[in-house]
Amino acid sequence: MSDASQIPVTRTASYEADPAQVHRVLLLYSGGLDTSVMLKWIQDSYHAEVVCLTVNLGQPGEDYGVIEGKALQLGALECHIVDAREEFARDYLTPAIRANAVYGDGYPLFTALGRPLIAKLAVDYARSSGCDTIAHGCTGKGNDQVRIEATIATLAPELKVIAPVRSWQMGREEEIAYARENGIPVKGGTESAPYSIDDNLWGRSSEGKWIEDLDHAPDDDVFQLVTRPELAPDEAEIVELTFEQGVPVALNGRQLGLVELIETAAEIGARHGVGILDHIEDRIVGLKVRDIYEAPAAALILPAHRELERLVCTIHQNQFKGDLDRQWGYLVYAGLWWEPLRGDLDAYMDRVNERVTGTIGLKLYKGHVRVVTRSSPNAVYDASLASFSESGGLFSQTASPGFIELWSLQSRMAWRLRNE
Ligand code: ARG
Predict the structure, then answer these.
(1) Rounded distance between C-alpha atoms, residue 382 and residue 339, angstroms
(2) Which of 110, 164, 211, 418 has the greatest count of CB atoms below 10 A from its CB?
(3) Considering the entire predicted model, what is its pTM?
(4) Per residue in 329-385, pLDDT tens?
(5) Rounded CA gap, 342 and 331, in Å?
């Protein structure tokens, strides 16, 4: 096949690269089939040099030495391996926790949170390595292209983008053939395509294969992170999470840095089968897609945070914040991490979270998580006021009928008008 013929001739966006101007490309490299084929294909069809960048966001089981070796063997000028777990936890997961961030019916946004950081690092490394263009392996049907390209176009208007998977006409068979012809090691054979996986500290998603059949219940082999609930221990386990200003700082009384705390929570949650979500999602590009998510750390931390926040906030704050949380989650899902509204919302989240300090106990059992204990110096709670037995002090039960009469006044008037 003639490679140069697959370079797109028409460009729809101003940031898409003009092939004549591509001299050195920063490739976001995962070590998988797509980006390995890409590494070779860019050198051949653009006659350009390629610098690779691989970002560690805490995806388990990755051998970065092997990835680097493979990149260099396939002709990369250099391969940068960056451990961005601390930055990811501090600058992306912390605001997400404060915003109780989920999209749709509970997707904790791990991919959506990771992409702007990966793209920001791509910009940094492209600049420091003298690249004029950034290449990534996203398809033209997903959200990730939006998140990555919106980030690059925002932070680095001088850099151009190429997304070969969107333009080359290769299917999986052709990619494997291309790999074989070009000495690119291919794991496994030409048998059916594997699940499409994305993962980091905060969770793991699987797409493709039978997942695209909406009436196909999950096959067991999709769960590679979380123990299937039916195989989880018969004994329940209590986990205590302590927060300071909305950030988890200790697990079962042991102070931990955020990365280690999330990894520990993930391990415990995974053991008990929590954090599985079988989710139909409205993508930004219009498609409805099914994902299988495994997010054991988020399944512990988010409900604990939400509970503590509700305890220290008033009814009015609690009514209001849910709407802002949803807006925050939507912006991040939709690839608008750098949109100023997100920063404005963060200012509110941070302010509210100044009081979100305390400890929440969770009970884990065969796929379920339930809050069982709460304590906070800032709880807007007084056991003697809430108690059924007592009256007096700040709360007088004899005042309640007068309150009810006024509280229900408009509703009663309206009812009468409609029913007379
Ligand atoms: N549907 C999720 C999202 O849009 C997960 C995407 C996973 N990405 C991937 N390249 N496999 O955030």
Answers:
(1) 41
(2) 110
(3) 0.96
(4) 999 999 999 999 999 999 999 999 999 999 999 999 999 999 999 999 999 999 888
(5) 7
Give the distance (Å) from ligand 1 centre to CA of residue 111: 6
pLDDT digits (tens, 9 = 90+) for 370-412: 999 999 999 999 988 888 766 667 888 899 999 999 999 999 9
Residue 141's φ and ψ, nearest 5 degrees, are -110, -5
Compute, in angstroms, the gap from residue 420 CA to the centroid of ligand 1.
Answer: 56
Q: What pLDDT is stored for residue 383 in this prediction?
A: 85
- Is the CB of residue 238 less than 8 Å from the CB of residue 363? yes
- Which residues' Cβ are closer than 6 Å to ligand 1? 111-112, 142-144, 196, 198, 205, 207, 281, 291
* Contact partners, residue 338, CB within 8 Å, separation at least 6: 116, 150, 151, 154, 155
Region of residue 106 (left: phi > 0; alpha: psi -120 to 50; beta: else)? left
Comparing C-alpha atoms, which of 8, 44, 31, 33 is closest to residue 171? 33
* Ligand 1 site-directed mutation target among 148, 166, 198, 202, most atoms within 8 Å of CB: 198
25 phi, psi to nearest 5 deg: -115, 135
Token pair for residue 410?
């408009």
Nearest CA to ligand 1 atom 4: 143
The closest-lying atom of ligand 1 relative to the alpha carbon of residue 283 is 4
Ligand 1 center to residue 292 CA distance, Å? 10
Contacts of 134 (CB under 8 A, 6+ apart): 25, 26, 27, 28, 119, 122, 123, 126, 152, 159, 160, 161, 162
pLDDT tens per residue across span 403-415: 999 999 999 999 9
Are the beta carbons of 165 and 8 closer than 8 angstroms?
Answer: no
Q: Is 198 helix (H, G, I), strand (E, B) or coil?
A: strand
The Cα 365–Cα 413 span in angstroms is: 49
Mean local confidence (pLDDT), 292-320: 98
Query: Which residue minimizes the CA distance to atom 2 of ligand 1?
Result: 111
Nearest ligand 1 atom to the CA of 281 is 1
Q: For ligand 1, what atom is nearest to the CA of residue 333?
A: 12
Nearest atom of ligand 1 to the alpha carbon of 207: 11
Active site residues: 34, 115, 144, 196
Tokens encoding 322: 């849910």
